[in-house]
Every structure is written in structure tokens, then in C-alpha cells.
């Protein structure tokens, strides 16, 4: 059983507007049978942090195109994307690169 995990989850580039305008969240993920990965984190974020317009953040089981994801300041594409196994004290940042005009 995976122990509870403490993370920092941040939103920027306008994505924070979907989360009550709060950019930085200190979160504790609960125990669960399998290790936490980004796929499970996204489900948790949708259920627990996302306040409005989920279609602007989530598409299927991943983030929408145009949202940059960084794990400990590294592009998630280098870390295994949805399959990255989260570690205690990881910093996960979601930055929207899409801006209205």
C-alpha cells in the first residue's frame, strides 16, 4: 500500500483561474493500493482542486494540449508523462501556454 504523499502542485499562465486563482497548493495524497503516478494525480486534482471548466484543463485522462507540465523543473516528457511515479515532496507545475486574444 502506498503511503500518504506530500506534494506541491502549482498552476500558472492562466491555469490558476480554474483553481479559484490559487497558484500554489500544498497537498497530501491519501494512501492507495498502487503507487501514485501523474495519471492518478490528474484524477485527484479534478476531484479535489479543480473548481470550474474542467474541459480547459483535462482532456480524456491527460492534460489538454497547450498545458506544459513540469516535474521538479523538468519537462514531464522526459520523466515518463502519465506513468511517472510520484515521490514525496515532488513539485508538479501546470502552465497554460494558450492565451486568448
UniProtKB/TrEMBL annotation:
Molecular function terms, GO-annotated: sulfur carrier activity
Keywords: Cytoplasm, Isopeptide bond, tRNA processing, Ubl conjugation pathway
Domain of life (superkingdom): Eukaryota
Biological process per Gene Ontology, one example term: tRNA wobble uridine modification
Gene3D superfamilies according to UniProt: 3.10.20.30
InterPro entries according to UniProt: Beta-grasp_dom_sf, Mopterin_synth/thiamin_S_b, Urm1
Pathway where this protein functions: tRNA modification; 5-methoxycarbonylmethyl-2-thiouridine-tRNA biosynthesis
Post-translational modification: C-terminal thiocarboxylation occurs in 2 steps, it is first acyl-adenylated (-COAMP) via the hesA/moeB/thiF part of MOCS3, then thiocarboxylated (-COSH) via the rhodanese domain of MOCS3.
Localization (cell): Cytoplasm
Sites of 1-thioglycine modification: 101
Cross-link (Glycyl lysine isopeptide (Gly-Lys) (interchain with K-? in acceptor proteins)) at residue(s): 101
GO CC annotation: cytosol
Function summary: Acts as a sulfur carrier required for 2-thiolation of mcm(5)S(2)U at tRNA wobble positions of cytosolic tRNA(Lys), tRNA(Glu) and tRNA(Gln). Serves as sulfur donor in tRNA 2-thiolation reaction by being thiocarboxylated (-COSH) at its C-terminus by MOCS3. The sulfur is then transferred to tRNA to form 2-thiolation of mcm(5)S(2)U. Also acts as a ubiquitin-like protein (UBL) that is covalently conjugated via an isopeptide bond to lysine residues of target proteins.
Family the entry assigns: Belongs to the URM1 family.
PANTHER family according to UniProt: RURM1 PROTEIN
Name of the protein described by the UniProt record: Ubiquitin-related modifier 1
The species this protein was found in: Pelodiscus sinensis
Originating gene: URM1
Amino acid at each position: 500500500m502506498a503511503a500518504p504523499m506530500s506534494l506541491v502542485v502549482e498552476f500558472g499562465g492562466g491555469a490558476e483561474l480554474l483553481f479559484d486563482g490559487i497558484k500554489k497548493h500544498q497537498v497530501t495524497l491519501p494512501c492507495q493500493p498502487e503507487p501514485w503516478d501523474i495519471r492518478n494525480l490528474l484524477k485527484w486534482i479534478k476531484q479535489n482542486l479543480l473548481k470550474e471548466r474542467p474541459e480547459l484543463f483535462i482532456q480524456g485522462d491527460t492534460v489538454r494540449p497547450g498545458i506544459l507540465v513540469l516535474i521538479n523543473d523538468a519537462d514531464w516528457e522526459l520523466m515518463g508523462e502519465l506513468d511517472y511515479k510520484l515521490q514525496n515532496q515532488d513539485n508538479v507545475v501546470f502552465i497554460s501556454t494558450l492565451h486568448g486574444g
